[in-house]
Structure formats: structure tokens, C-alpha cells
């Protein structure tokens, strides 16, 4: 036990250091996904008008790049190795009670954004049949790999803060609270857990409790993507961040052009507005007291000629033989739009996002054309399904252990929803042909959009009931015909 504590303490130091090392990059990517992006470059000392244009130039394409593929990852059922159809017991007792219909998206998005999503599994003392499955933040959980097998995680560290309100006899407004922050860390291996605490701003960890979790396996599962040969995951959107910055810069330049050079500008040169006497000396403005008026620097203010006001029925006449009036043409904003469109196309191509996500590129696309445009995205989605499916299968195996099942279901398989763009008529026609060819209705109907194991079960029962009613009516009719 003493040796296990020493190892756990060493792993805590390693996990804490690793989480600290990834923190800046993790927060940077998360900030970009949420639209909090670096402003385009502008020289120092620009006025508030420029600053407002900088803020308006941000267009968050990064969120589309993440959600386009991850929204296609939808689990419709879980098939165990002991039966051919989806397991309704697993669905009703494990999946649905843990609200995984909505929460499944969390590890998928973190897997794509940061290279790794995490889920945890633990026994449920209140209901043994329904173990707890929770998405975990990759910012707070570090998974330690086996030194000899970098693709297998054998220990984990989870660190988070807990704020506690201090006891006080003062009556305070509801908005005012005195609290202390305690840092809490858990270290897990395949059999035990150790809890450490650091209070009062101290960085010194103290062991507070320990125990056995009973799973005989690490209770955390990594959803890893873009793994290299060292077992290290890599973010899929890291290379898109410079592209996003370029798009924001182009939008900023476009807004500048629209603000300052989108219209023709009239230019005056050689015009001297100062009123002069016959000798060429400026005539000074005088106050009511007969004294010259002075500017802020104490210099006399000269009298000025008005340049007049522009209008279609007015003529501008300027004194001086050197005065010239001409126009500067407006900027061609089409060039800015073309550059923006090309950069946006490159962004979508790198992110494997089909052109229909740019609504301006859609023009009466047929079903075949739409499927062709989706081919790159579907290849990406299939790649993500392979990675996420393996992890979800491990999550369900751990859940079975947590609920006391001794059978190790190595043949389990995730049933993914079909999210390829097809018309409902095409889907129904294909399913009808499969059933006519001998495929079971239960398996075929699972391919319908939005189908879940409980829904399909109800459809089958309703269909069987209706057939029985029809058979009874036919038998009654035949009996009546025979009697007559």
C-alpha cells in the first residue's frame, strides 16, 4: 500500500505538469471555437472607429468547422456480442438514464477540437443497474499511457477546484460571499483511487483518502483522434486557426475600404482659404474690443474664405490660379469579395466541409450532386466514427462491469445513425427492397432517420398487432361467406 501511494504521488506530479503544459494551447483553441479570436492587425494609436471595424470583422467559421462533422456522429443503438439486434436493455438501463443522447456530443467535439475527449464510468450506489457515465473535460483530466504500449492508458489524474463559503457572523448581501478555494486531485489506476487536497493557496498536496473502484480497469476512456505512432492525439482544427485569422483580416480590409473609399472622393489642391490684402498679407480676425483673436497657441487667427457647398445647382469658384479640383474613384469592392470567397473556399476545403455550407454556392443541386459534394465530409465522418466507436464500446464494457456483469463483451458494436443526405423517399424505397429481399423488419427499420431501439420495438409490435387484426377480419369474412 505504501508503494502504491508513492507511485500515485509521482503520477500526480506528472499529470499536473502535463495539464499545465497543454493549458495554453487548449484554451487558445477553445477561445477560437467560441468566437473569441485575435483581432486583425491595425497600427498603434488608431482611433475608435478603426477599433469598431476590427471587432466587426470577426466571423466565426471555426465553429462550423467543428460542428459540421461532429453533428453527424449520432448513436442510434448498441449491439452486444451476444445478439444480432440492438440491445434494448443496455439502451434503456445505461444509455438513456445517463442522458447520452445529448451528452455524447461533448467528447466528440473535444476529440475533434483538441485531439482527445474523455468519459468516465463509475458504479451507481443508488441504482446498481444504471452505472454513471459522464463526459469529462480534457483540460482537467490527464490520461497516462503505458511506457511499453503508448496506445493503452493505465492511470489517470483529475484536478479541479472546489470553492467553499467560510463561516461568518456578519450579515452580508447575497452578492457578497467569502469563500476559500481547495484544489482537489484524484489519481486512478486499474484498481485504486487516491484523493489529494491542497488548501489555502498552497501547492503542497496532502493525501486525504483512498479506496478501490472495483472495475479492474481504468475508469476513464479517451476518445483519441489523429494519433501518431507514439500514441499522442493531435487537434484537427489547429491548422485552421491561421486560415481563420486570414479571413478576419480580409473582412477588416473590406470594411476599411467600405468605410473610407467605397465612394468617389472630391480632392482640392492649391487652394489657399486665407483672406489676404493687396500686399498678400493675411487679414486678422478682430474681436468686439478691437483686439486680434488668438488661437490656442497664442497666434492671431486669419480670416478664411468659405470653399462653398457642393450641389448639382451650384458652381464652386476658388481664388488663386493654382487651385485644382478633381475626383478620386471609389475602390472596387468586388476584388475584396473575390479574395474573401477564395480564402473561404480554401478554408472549407482544408476542413473537409462541403460547399453547401456556404449557402451562396447552392444552386438547384440534385441528390447525386449533393452526395458527391458530401463525399469528403462523409470520409471524415467515417474516420471519426471509427475512433469514437472504439471508445464508446470500451465505455459500455466498463458500464457492464460497474453493474456487476462478469461477461466481457468484446464483440459489442455501436450502431450509428445514417446522416448522409438522402431524401426520405429514397430511404423508404431502399428499406422496402431490403425487407423484400429477406432482411428482418426490425433491422431494416433501424435505418430510418431518428429510429431508436425502443421506437423500432414499438413499430414492430404495432405492425404485428395490425396484421393480426387484418387476419382476424379476413377469417371472419371467410366464415360468413361459408355460412351463407
Describe this entry's structure for a reader.
With 484 residues, the chain is an alpha+beta fold. Among the domains are: 265-328, no CATH class; 422-484, no CATH class. Helices cover 40% and strands 16% of the residues. The protein contains 13 helices and 12 strands. The mean pLDDT is 84.
Measured between the Cα atoms of the first and last residue, the distance is 89 Å
Sketch the topology as an H/E string, one letter per element: HHHEHHHEEEEEEEEHEEHHHEHHH
Q: β content, as a range?
A: 15-25%
Shape: flat
The largest sheet, given as strand count, sense and whether it forms a barrel, is:
5 strands, antiparallel
Low-confidence stretches: none
Structural class, by secondary structure, is alpha+beta
- Record the strand order, biggest sheet: 4-5-6-7-8
